[in-house]
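Colleagues,

Please find the record for the two-part complex below.
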Amino acid sequence: MSNIPSDLQYTRSHEWVRGLPNGQVEVGITHHAQEALGDLVFVEVPQLDRRLTAGEPCAVVESVKAASDVYSPVSGRIVASNDDLAQRPELLNQDPYGAGWLIRIELDTSAPRGALLTAAEYAQFLAE
Amino acid sequence: MPYVPHTPDDITRMLDVIGAQSIDDLFDEIPAALKTTTLNGVPPALSEMEIARLLTERAASDGRSLNFIGAGAYEHHIPAPVWAIATRGEFYSAYTPYQAEASQGTLQLIYEYQSMMCALTGMEVSNASLYDGASALAEACLMAVRANRASNARRILLPRAVNPTYCQVARAITCNQNIEFAVVDFDRREGRMPLAALQAYRGQDFTALVVQQPNFFGNLEEVDQLTDWAHANNLLVIAVVNPISLALLKPPGEWGGLLAGKRGADIVCGEGQPLGVPLASGGPYFGFMTTRMQHVRQMPGRIVGRTEDTEGRPGFSLTLQAREQHIRRSKATSNICTNQGLLVTAATIYMALLGAAGLKCVATASVQRTAELVRALMQVKGVAAAFDAPRFHETVLRLDRPVAPVLAALAERGILGGLDLGASYPELGNALLVCATETKLDVDIDAYARALAGVMQASRDARGAA
């Protein structure tokens, strides 16, 4: 059974979004996504300050059998990326909602908010 | 047992299953007006005996010319063992086998090839080869755009003295991927790219600088200066090199470093044909590409790695496949994944047979033979050197009259006298690109010089008479 924390929001492409106290958001891939990919061997995170539109590919996660794009769930500017993943990509498998976070984004308030899923909706989506 | 995969019986049974009357029914959706029913210009089928006879006659019409054309494909002596070994049943395939790991011998050979190319170019990692030198440059440009994260542009500085065919192919392959090339001119006296020509681009966002060494004219670029300039301006350096020349010249992995701490080209590519592959009217050849570990995930093509099995025994496997097209589809690092397995086999055997010392002999002899050729041809009235720069085994001569008729007259005497540069470089006037490798003996060079003197004199006489 997939681990889907109730305090996060989700996308149909298996990213999660966490609102941070300073208004920025943290983004990663879900427990389900890391499980489907298998052991991750490489993570490519984007350049700082890059501007993203919701739905745009922003990172690549690579396992021994596949390399997959991670799509930005929101629009905004990249303010941080998880440098630990360069040396320890396995963090994404071990702790996808914590130490395996990918990027932090400062939201572009002028851009329309994309429709994100609640935990219950994401669980329902996985069940389908 | 039938030789054909589908007998008429098989076809009927398959059509029955899907409920179609004929194979043509499967192509119903193509409007009749678009279908061709006859193949104009394709003659009727021939028997094996007839086709063998026809092709033998055609092959004989190639003649046995004395060849002084280089321009990207070079005639070197290929020791007999190279193709005797490469065509053994164990090796004789163009393909990396499916279930590659079941073919440890093939993988080991590719691994040895990669190791040799890394040593030759001074780089850390090599792929298992690409289609040819020209497409290798195109792939290197695309790779540079992926790899250079300091640049937001998709713009490449491309010297005009880079092989024009490579430039054309690079443009063709990248034209629908928003990649822009800015052409950097060469110095008319030296026939190479001066550092000053790059200054105009300082401060602009470019992804990479292409440096061909030796360049298309055979001249040696000032690679250290050019590499340092590129790195100081956040450009990657794409080196295009002749592998034989690397037996004598500084490997691209060590270019630069005159001022800055950072040194070496970032991506090295080129044409592998000089390493044991015959000219064969233009192909097949193979491209090579090496880079630094830092960029390995952006390198197209396959890579063989050395590993251990569960019992600790050494073995070879395909590695870093996750970005190849069978997995990554349209987002693969390349969708021209052809490696040239058979030609790489020949090249690996060639390099192993010659060794470092042998390659150096080939390179040195080629340099000397070209020097001899230039000396001999410059004695001919109406022939002058076009450039004043150090060179490898190729150079540009300037004639006092149009090149094409001279080459045609030489061809009648059984001599392929070089490449007329008029079409690609009209600014050079009557320019002729000539090359001599170790295969050209004194008698060959004498024969060329005498023939050229005869041709030039004859056309002077003809003009005098008219």
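The domain at 15-110 of chain A is CATH 2.40.50.100 (OB fold (Dihydrolipoamide Acetyltransferase, E2P)).

Comments are welcome before we finalize the supplementary table.
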